Task: structure prediction
Amino acid sequence: MIPARSRPAWAEISANALRHNAEVVKKQIGSAALCAVVKADGYGHGASLVAKVFEQAGIANFAVANIDEGIELRQAGISGSILCLSEPDICAIPEALNEGITLTLYSREAMLRTRQAAEKVFKESIDSEKRIGYHLKIDTGMHRVGANPSEIMDLAVYGNEIGLKMEGFWTHLSVADQPNVSDLVEFTMRQLSIFDDLKEKLLQSGYAPRFHVANSAAAYNYPGSHFHMVRSGIALYGCSPSLDTEIEDLWPVMTLKARVSFIREVGPGEFPSYGRKRPTTGDRTVLATVPLGYADGIPRRLFESGVEVLISGERRPLAGTITMDQVIVDCGDDPDVSVGDEVVFIGTQGSQSVTADEWADLLGTINYEVITGIGFRVPRILDSSGMPNYGSGALGLT
Result:
């Protein structure tokens, strides 16, 4: 992500909201450990930034999608357990081990390569005295990654024989966010049943890994899925997993903001922006240019979908097609809109709010895609005190 220097556009990340949401989830999951999923740059919020807040709040477990994401956390000083959720590319295993990143494995080849890499990294034999921890993933029906149920016991034995230690055993629930659809509930219960059966077999065979299944949705809809640990992502960022699983008392974490960079007044019948899509009406229209565009995660189709932004506490429509770096806002005949005024794309201003869920509805997608889509050019700035802290001269806010 590009640091804030020359463009008045940024995303405020509320530390208070992160801590609050973590407490909301912890209350729900009881004695189970909370694993904060910070993949995809912390769901678009800044992985290093949010992980530091979570670690300071006592969360000791993190999950990432790939080794590069885990290394970023280590370089940022995160000392907690970091679990990579998919088998890494073979060439990434040595660096993962060197950085203390726990691997998810589900094939013999990856297990063997992990053992071989460990001997090179640690320069000693990997045997019963020094074992390398890993988590074994089972595919219970989502069919994305993971070992088949019939392979689990053989893989457990093989890993043990070559000097690996199964520290975790897990799966992923694909429709836990839809608790009101009977056949999907039945499918989730089938996933849990498969997992439970193998859990008992592992325990009877002397294995004692940390069992984990639940994501944010399952944490609320399927309390029996909590086991030892819950991997929560979307809820920590203040968004519910779906319209069918709306979690109460979550606080939105991200506020996407910019400032008006240019003002122009035009008469009726003008067509701002590319494509000449919509004419201005009225004798006088104030057009406010704002420096965020589709390269920053403001999709072009939001214009025709009717998205609005907030200026001076009022909802304002866009005046024309969203461009790569800028949008033009139709401020009607408001004489008080000026260069430097704050513009809220996602968040609250005065009594009005625009949410990631609202964008998702307009775009025909999910809130996950909205928040992870905010581009790398938008600096994420931690609001740790209830008030923005931009630093001296940052974003032109002196």
Summary: The chain has two domains: 31-237, 254-396. Residues 386-398 have pLDDT under 50 and may be disordered. The two ends are 22 Å apart (CA to CA).
